[in-house]
Amino acid sequence: MAEKRLLENKTVIVTGSKRGMGRQMVTTFAENGANVIAHARVQDDEHMDFCNTLAEKDHVKIIPVYFDLRNESEIKNGIKTIRAKKMVIDGLVNNAGISYTALLQMTSIDQLREIMDVNFFAPYILSQYISKMMLRNKKGSIVNISSSAALDGNPGLSAYGASKSALLCMTRSLAAELGENNIRVNAICPGVTATDMINDMKDDIFRIQKEASFLKKVATPDDIANTAMMLLSDMSKYITGQVISVDGGITQFSKR
Questions:
Q1: pLDDT tens sequence across 125-152
Q2: C-alpha to C-alpha distances, 89 to 109, 127, 173, nearest whole angstrom
Q3: Is the confidence at residue 91, as pLDDT, over 60?
Q4: Out of 66, 129, 160, 238, which one is annotated catalytic?
Q5: What are the DSSP E strand ranges found in 21-179?
Q6: What pTM, to 2 d.p., does this model score?
Q7: For 45-64, what is the mean pLDDT?
Q8: Which of helix, strand or coil describes residue 181?
Q9: 189: enclosing H helix or E strand
Q10: Which helix (H) or strand (E) holds 112?
Q11: Going by C-beta distance under 8 Å and a sequence separation of 6 or more, which residues neighbour residue 116?
């Protein structure tokens, strides 16, 4: 008898699914039996082919949806598209985000607003709408992808860190609000992860972060995807309101 896949027959929304951690999450969730609504900002043939190929390989549904997280009207239209599918939503992973590194005096208000729009306001709005859908079935799991920058006060990360820190406060509050309806809300704080975002990181900072890890290596997208999968699955049915650092010990190291 084949082993049951961890997310068998669950439907999960993943934002920012075109690359990096989001793309790996879609892959990992599909391999484990989930139907995935794969969000991206802009439609293109490569993303469509990725979704179709994965759906065929793992015998699940991979449904691409496209909307800009900086635009509230587009988010609302995206929600309408999701509702029209008439699928029970079991999970939401607020993964999409933008990185930004600059000192306080070099950060404009426009840049700050864009960071907050994508990294905090969009997950907040999506959580509002998707949790309403979950409430009908009195079950669900929301996973917010924050960052180790939310926990550490490193120079140049005041704007980015603040946006990711806001996600942590939201996580704990929503867990308290939604828990009695069996909707769990948790956050993951990745450390430095081998995605194309690290291309923006200076070599010396990358080396310091890597060496600060107890494991002396950076995370892979698979490390983050597997943690998210656990939080979406019934294996974590009594875990809510938690912040899980997946950073090889970097956060703990920096506080000693």
A1: 999 999 999 999 999 999 999 998 888 8
A2: 36, 12, 21
A3: yes
A4: 160
A5: 35-40, 62-66, 91-94, 140-145
A6: 0.92
A7: 98
A8: helix
A9: strand 183-190
A10: helix 109-116
A11: 162, 163, 166
